[in-house]
Amino acid sequence: MPISAHDHGAAPAPVRRGGVAGPMVLGIVAAACFATTFVLNRWMSVSGGSWLWSTSLRYLFMVVPLTVLVAVRGGLPGVLRSLRARPAVWLIWSTVGFGLFYAPLTWAGEAGAGWLVASTWQLVIVAGIAIGALGGGRVPLRTVGVSALIVAGVVLAQLQHAEGTGALTALKVVLPVAVAAVAYPLGNRRLLGLDGLDGVQRTLAMTLGSLPLWIVLAGTAAATQGPPPGSQLVQCLIVALVSGVVATTLFFRATDLVRHEPAALGAVEATQAAEVPFTLLGEALVVGIAAPALTGWLGLALIVVGLCVHALARTPGGAGTRPRDDGDEREGHGPAAAHTPHTAEAAAGPAERLQYAGERHRP
After folding, report:
1. What are the pLDDT digits (tens) for 131-165?
2. DSSP codes joined into one string, 196-246
3. Mean pLDDT (whole number) for 349-360
4. Sign of the dihedral defined by the CA atoms of residues 16, 17, 18, 19, in that order
């Protein structure tokens, strides 16, 4: 992967105080779009639609609009070059990051309400921190503490609903969503900055890399369930555009901007907690659920406070690195120097060291 020349010169400038706020705004907007997944998947489940169609159609519908978007931005040649150069890497980690993320998440929607799936999904906050730590990153205690505050807020927000949820139903939701919560940040971080692809390019590359799984699931659905109803086709198209294209590219762009700062990266991943209040609102409008009780409002307040602390506080551990724009690394943008993999890895941050570890062990 090309490394920009400014990575190896004078000490980079410290991160400005507001440097994390922008990526976090992108993350929160992405969370609002992601919430459509939980609401519409539950709606399709209640209406009798097969989860196999729900999960496969989303990504099959994403291929054309993403390809057009990337082509208009002039990034399609870079995506194709990377896919040709590392087919196994894209196949494996796209299947993990998209396949093992969305298939279990959709299946969980068959068993529990959208709010239960969305709240359990906040395990992704803990998973992101753990993956960063295992990759050699130093995660500040403030990041851990504020993320724990967000998770506590999620628990409080859902107490009134959890009382009416049976243990078996909860287990059917918790186990698959736990798998999804680990797979999504793992696949995402393994492919961060690979070949200089930006967030939109990476979304397309991962969609194409995971296509074999979606084709198999769609074939299984056709053989066992028959064709999907028209209403499910429309709802899957909405999920594909709003959640799959808009939300995913926004979130990937946000993580790209802070990928060299472990604390900021954890903060951006924590914005997904905002999916819970957005899902509660969406289900109230579409499916019809009771408004939160006092404990629910307290939980939502803790989520908002946690997000604000992440966004506005000075990022510890990140002062030694400044955010770089994806354009700095893409071919044809800015000077690039040739470095051995080990030299580049030594210069990279903890999140990128995860990528280099995968590169060393790719087939």
Report:
1. 877 777 677 777 788 878 878 887 787 676 666 66
2. G--HHHHHHHHHHHTHHHHHHHHHHHHHHH-SPPHHHHHHHHHHIIIIIII
3. 33
4. positive
Bridge partners for 337 per DSSP: 3
Retrieve residue 64's tokens.
């054309």
Amino acid present at 199: G
Q: How many other C-beta atoms lie within 10 A of the C-beta of residue 294?
A: 9
Tokens standing for residue 362:
């790719």
What does the H/E/C string look like for 240-264? HHHHHHHHHHHHHHHHHHCCCCHHH
Using a 10 angstrom Cβ sphere, with 0-12 exposed, 13-18 middle and 19 or more buried, the burial of residue 285 is exposed
Residue the block writes with tokens 């999904």: 121
Give the largest CA-CA distance in the chain. Answer: 62
Q: How many CA atoms lie within 13 A of 225 on its CB side?
A: 17
Place of tokens 């802070």: 258
- The pTM score is 0.69
Residues 8, 347 contacting (CB under 8 angstroms): yes
Q: Rounded distance, CA 329 to CA 1, Å?
A: 8
Is 83 within 8 Å of 208 (Cβ atoms)? Answer: yes
| Residue labelled with tokens 């390809």 | 67
Rounded to whole angstroms, what are the CA distances from 54 to 15, 48, 182, 245?
42, 11, 21, 16
Alpha-carbon span 242 to 263, nearest angstrom: 28
Q: Is the dihedral of CA 227, 232, 237, 240 positive or negative?
A: negative
d(CA 91, CA 100): 12
